[in-house]
Structure to design on (184 residues):
């Protein structure tokens, strides 16, 4: 008899801005570095003032996710979103990780990134793949987020001030358990 139950092999971290979602991801990546591919995002600051966000791949590429100085681009708040770098860098890193790594890192599935249809397709492809996915996802804001969170193969981990120091070890245990159970 077939079952609709899916093993949860996709781990997505959510929580309010600034709580430490990316910090959790980077701690996990430091431990499992050779197993991971994909990207993370960081703030771009000048003299302490946030001017935008950068995309940084785990294999050393970087680009602009969004910047206050970008014009003639889609806007999220005061930031112009750089769809070209999302597709050239973030999407490419997801696609490459699905081929060359055991764990696909996607930091983040957020309002800016999902302006790119290619990004949305790459996220779904990674979640549907046999690879583990570790990422961050916005708490709310778009039906695309809810659709992902409702998948049977996705475990949502809410980061808080109380658990953010312990969450990397918890995630590492889950990832290692899945890898060993699936001989990866």
């Amino acid at each position: 008899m077939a079952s609709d139950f899916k093993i949860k092999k996709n781990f997505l971290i959510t929580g309010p801005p600034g709580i430490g979602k990316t910090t959790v991801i980077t701690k996990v990546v430091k431990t499992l570095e050779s197993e991971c591919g994909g990207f993370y995002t960081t703030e771009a600051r000048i003299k302490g003032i946030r001017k935008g966000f950068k995309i940084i791949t785990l294999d050393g590429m970087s680009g602009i996710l969004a910047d206050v100085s970008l014009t003639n681009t889609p806007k999220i708040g005061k930031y112009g979103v750089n769809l070209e770098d999302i597709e050239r860098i973030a999407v490419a890193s997801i696609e490459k990780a699905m081929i060359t790594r055991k764990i696909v890192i996607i930091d983040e599935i957020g309002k800016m990134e999902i302006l790119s249809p290619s990004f949305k397709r790459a996220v779904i492809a990674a979640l549907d793949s046999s690879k583990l996915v570790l990422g961050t996802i916005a708490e709310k804001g778009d039906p695309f987020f809810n659709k992902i969170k409702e998948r049977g193969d996705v475990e949502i981990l809410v980061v808080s001030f109380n658990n953010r120091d312990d969450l990397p070890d918890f995630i590492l245990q889950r990832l290692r358990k899945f890898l060993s159970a699936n001989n990866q």
